[in-house]
Amino acid sequence: MLNLIQDTIVHTQPESLGAAVEKAGHAHGQTDWSVAAIVALPLLACVLTGLCAALRVKSKLPAWITVASLAGAFALTLKTFAAHFMGAESHPFVVHVFDWVTFSWAADAHAQGPQTNELAANFAFYLDSLSALWMLFVTGLATLIALYASEYMSHDQGAGYCRFFAAFSLFVFSMACLVMADNLLLLYLGWEGVGLCSYLLIGYFYKKPSAVAAAKKAFIINRIGDLFLAMGVMLIFVQFGTVEYSVLFEKARPYIELARAGQFSQIPFLVKLIPCLLMGGAFGKSAQLPLYVWLPDAMEGPTPVSALIHAATMVTAGVFLIARTYPLFLLSEIALPVVAWVGALTALLSATIGMAQFDIKRIMAYSTVSQLGYMFCGLAVLSPSGGVFHVVTHAFFKALLFLCCGAVMHGFAGQLDLRKLSGVMKVPGWRIVGFGMLIGCLNLAGFPLTAGYFSKDMILAEAFVTPGTAVIGWILLITAGLTAYYTFRVFFRVFVGPVAYELGDEHHGADHGHDDGHGHGDAHGHAQAKGHADAHGHGGTHHEPHAPGWAINTVLATLAVLSLAATGLYFVGGDHGAVAGLVDQSSAGFHSPLAHHGAAEGAPAHEAGHAVVSYVPEFVHARAHGGEVHAGTIFGADPHKAMYFISAGVGAVGIFVAFWLHLAGRKSAATSRADALLPALGPIPGWAQGKWYVDEFYDFLVRKPLWVLSHIFYLIDSYLVDGLVDFIGAAPRAAGKVIRPSQSGELHGYALGMAGGLVILIVIVALVAT
Amino acid sequence: MTERLAFLYPEIVLFVATCVVMVLGLSRSLRARKSSAVVAGVSVLLAGFLAVVSTPRGSGDAACPLSGFVYSHALTPAMGQVLLPELAPYAKAVIALVGALLLLPMAGTVDRTDEARIAAGKAGFDPLRSNRAEFYAFYLFSLTGLMLCASADNLIWLFLALELTSLPTYIMVAISTSRNRSREAGVKYFFLGALGAAVFLYGFALVYGGTGTTNLNAIAHSISTGGLNTITLLGVVVSLLGLCFKIAAAPMHFYTPDVYEGAAPQVSGFLAFVPKTAGFIAILLLCAAVGWGYSHADSGVGSLLHAVSAEPLVQGTGRRLPYLLWLMIWVVAALTMTIGNVLAVLQRSVKRMLAYSSIAHSGYMLVGVLAGPGDSASTSGVSAVLFYLLAYGVMNAGTFAVLAALERGTDSEGQPVEVETLDDLRGLCASHPLLGWTMVVCSLSLLGLPPLLGFFGKLPLFTSGIAAGQITLVVVLGLNSAIAAFYYLRLAFTPLLESRDESEAPPALAPFRSRMAGAVIAAVGVLVLSAIGGWAMGHAFDAATVKGAGAIAPRGH
């Protein structure tokens, strides 16, 4: 199964990535404006919707502008993709738009390390199969979700509508910068841009305190991750003297050779530190332990935002970062193992939390965190193609799931509690939503022959193949079972079973209703939502759910079809499907020129005595030599084959348990057979429902000490610093008062002053000279 | 011959224009009289244009027929100073641009009441009473002198050019208003200016005595080959102290606040740029003749004597000015900026505050003089000074133009009353938004707030100071910038944030639209130059090319 590497391909690869980039660059001659337009169109949409806001447009115009621009961007991405990356072999190329940052300074003769005196970061796009693939689903999903939002947000038409779509377009622009950046500085711009848009959109209902708090939480926790990323980028510049990928990878090559030879002790510590810092950025943006706590709260934003930003695209930026800088992650023997453990533990932890939640959107949020953990594991167990494939399939089915939940929330007046909804599929007009949800759930649960099944399998199997990561594999396998359970818990509770529902507190049946305040599992959010509804005087409960309109249904149907069709990606174009083929040719792939430098062939084999705690060296070494690694087996069988059956079995068990506990014999919406089991488990379900009190723990560990510290600093500031400042402010005045009399206004006084000053200075000079 | 004249095209244009203006200003026709200012402005711009396009540039060896030297790297085939061979085009272009900007607020400075009476038919035109011709002619003479400074290759030339720059300004100050205060200021300025001129002329004489020549290139050669003897060193020290008068640096700064306050604001703005630029060009020329190639131990009183005894007074052993010169400029720079800033903090009068701040800015620029040449725009102090002159010229023109564009009615003699204190500027952004915002932009820029022009001007002063190892002085510079924030923020926020009492009428606009235009153009210039500062700084760096003294070899004497 694992003959990813053929010698023929090895030898046809160009000498170096840098050379390949340059060649492609020459072939393309001048700037390819169609590529630039992919980025420019969302920005244009942002500007135009901003104008709409300024002109107080009340229609759906902003939505149509956004949808049209994003569709244009998608079409251009498709064109670029078809032109450059459809073949068996593709070369990365750079599209230079304009010089962005060029800063040079005098070289310091005593400087250590690489001699450099220039920081150059152009507004240029680096297109390889990885970024093209990413852009394909980012722009595609953004178009669909913008269309969905045109209906979903229609109750806010006016200033809020414009604001929403402006931020939405700005997000796509930032994401495009992030993904297509030719250098880490532009990536950082995009990184901060998506963080900003995420903040703006989570806090879209800015009158609701919980939304504002969630937005702040997301932003602050992301800043922690961003700090690590920034330090990583700086360290890269310090160590390699560049932030451009093509140059960077070229300069990192000697270290990669060392890593491949297993000689990690010869790689400087600061170089090994780079992946560890980048990792911190990735964990923040992609909501991994210990920085995952912001993502569930981010569900305060409108659902299309949750679907696009907090499920499908932005949160995968961390995965993208690692995939993009994958060669650097091979430089440290601990970087990938740490990523693997963090991913696996995050996957397990959030799955357990997801099992105990009642808010269906929140369950989906925890499942996103969990699935992101899978993706990181995929990268970290040396299956970048598996990780990226999972990103793609997950993007589709998770967007679908969120949009279905959003449709329910939209139709049932903000009701998201699965104890208050049942048999939704049987309500007239809800069939498409129900089927969409089913397809999404099957994918998420890893039901055999769905796309999610194949992508998850690639990761799981590789975890067992890669030496030393079998424990990770087991954790992920257990998590897969839990995932199947909580996914279908939602489906069986909400969409099938007896028809019974209770509408939420937010009735936008009235013309001026608002879609803010989702019913939350936790009491706090509930109280807010109630308060809001009361404030607006919508107290009635006699409203009927209103079924989704054409826009929502079209999008759901399209996404359902795409989620199913994603399965096909596994069967076309190569051993592990089209995505694997694409990933292999990018910076993350073992087919990439980086992984196949001639020198590796002659490198001494990794000595057994070199007791590296990591599995990375030998594995990379073996991979690089085109060898197969069968270090791991599962029940004595080839993990790749065995996994097809094992994971299918685990998934089926999870679904069956969910069926037995939550559907079979259920008579009402609120109770199920599972309730009988709860006492047997003691306090554990309560802890899981309380999210293992991680938020409270952080509160105790970080916020409280900071609060105390800030009060101490306040005292210091108001007494010591202010006093000092007052004193310093007074000093120039006092000095001025002393010398003021010299400005008497009298001519002879001035002349005397001049002559006196002259004499004094000359005397000083004369004294010093003699 | 024409090749040699090409160096003087700008000055020739200005001189011709001066003659024309003198005649036009005395014309009986109002139109002709009014056109004198236009002629002056056009000629200044034309001179700047000619300086850029017609100044001969070349490379390779060339003989200088006047001084009898062969410059191995001279860019000037015929004549001109080769210590800063690229200086003239840049300096003259800056002088022309800022000079033209300073001309705009000068409309109506002189003859205002007379012209009003003539227009009202109460009096006929009397050439003996009119000052217009002289005023614009003096303006042009002063700029001519300033441009001549930039291409001076001889101490005598330099002295004459400096005096040609200054002498007209004495009279411009005196006639800028018809109040006694202006006359007093003019007289003070004249006497103290004469004292200053005497000092640096004495210094020039000592330099001549020490080196046997007045040609700057020959002086540089003599110093680089024969070392720096005591007489020459004393001469340079005295000359620099004398030139401190021109740049309003301690201990020659006393006149500044009185003269600036006494003159009309538009003339004060002129004083803040023109003599200062002349002084800095002269200082740079003198320092270039001595050279920045000496070595001495780091500053500090402890190492002082040791440093002096160990210092070889020979060019080419290090990267600094000779120790004594360095020490003197260090002390003058630190004193100047500190005195300027701490006294500015106390002022309520805007003009006095700007006068003191002008002293402080000279102190800042002296840091660049100390830092000397470097190999990039961020390490070259000379380039930093040249760029700062442009930046300061534009920002400063804006603040004074705002003052010129406002007046508070007329006094008992029918004279317009100037805007005096900060209180008069309260709520200016509300009553006169363009002028108010100009004041805000220009004063924030003078403060050096990023991303405005002043910041980009100050930044190379800092970096070049650090590159030259003047850490202590850079710290002093930083502290002074902080003190400057105190009064510049007040100047920026009084128009913006404070509101005027209902009972007080806001200041009226002066009835000359070009004054307001001058202010607005300066503000726009600040913003534009902030954006394209890198481009201008590149030109400043090119102009800051300093030829090592070793590059100049005599051809037989």
What attributes characterize this protein structure?
heterodimer, A: 770 residues, mainly alpha, two-stranded antiparallel sheet, 66% helix, disordered N terminus, B: 557 residues, three-stranded antiparallel beta sheet, globular, disordered C terminus
Give the structure's gist in a few sentences.
The complex is a heterodimer of chains A (770) and B (557). Chain A has 770 residues and is mainly alpha-helical.
> In terms of quaternary structure, what is this?
heterodimer
Q: Largest beta sheet of chain B: what is the strand line-up?
A: 1-2-6
How many strand units of chain B? Answer: 6
* Morphology of chain B: globular
Largest sheet of chain B: 3 strands, antiparallel
Query: Which secondary-structure class do the elements of chain B indicate?
Result: mainly alpha
As a whole number of angstroms, the C-alpha radius of gyration of chain B is: 23 Å
Question: What is the largest interface, and how many residues per chain?
Answer: A-B, 32 and 45 residues
Query: What percentage of amino acids of chain B are in beta strands?
Result: under 5%
The strand line-up of the biggest sheet of chain A is 1-2
Please estimate the helix content of chain A: 55-70%
What's the total helix number of chain A? 31
Number of strands of chain A: 4
Kindly report the average pLDDT value of chain A.
Answer: 79
| Radius of gyration of chain A (Å) | 29 Å
Mean pLDDT of chain B: 86
